[in-house]
Amino acid sequence: MKTMYDIQILYSKAHQALQYVLSLTYGTHEETFKLLPSFGYVLEQKNHGTITDLQRNEYGYRRCMHPVIAVGGTHLKGRFGGTMFVVTAQEGNEQMYPIAFGYSDLENNLSWEWFLDCFKGSLSHIDDMVFISDRHASIKDVISKVFLDVTHTIC
C-alpha cells in the first residue's frame, strides 16, 4: 500500500483485510466444516471404495497394501484445534496410501481407542500385520489393547 498508493496502514489492519478477503474467497471455517459431510459423500461417489464413516466400512482393507501400517497424530492449530489421527500403508508402487483419518478434541488413550477401534472394524483379518508409530504412550497402550495379535514397533 505504501509503495503503490503512498498510504501507510498498520500491520494489524492489513492482516484483518487479508483475513476478510480470504473469507470472502474461500468461506469461513464454520462454513467449511459444515461442508464436510457433503465432501465425504462426493468422495464416496467419485472414488469407489472410499469410506468417510469408518464405523460402517463394508469394503475392508485393500489387498494391494503391505501389511505394515503407520499410525500417527498431529495437533491442529487454529480456531477449532484438536488432533487429527492418520493411518497409512505402503502400496505396491512403494507409495504411501492414506487409509483413515479421524478427529478428536484431545489426544489421549480414550480418543486413540475410539479411532483405532473404528479402524479395526474396517479391516478384514490380515496375517502378520505390523503397526509403526512414534513413541506416544497412548498409541502404544491402545494398539496392544485393540489389536491383540499384531506387532507394534516405533520409529
Automatic annotation (TrEMBL):
It comes from the Eukaryota. Residues 69-155 form the MULE transposase domain. Pfam families: MULE. PANTHER family: MUDR FAMILY TRANSPOSASE, POLYPROTEIN, PUTATIVE-RELATED. This is MULE transposase domain-containing protein.
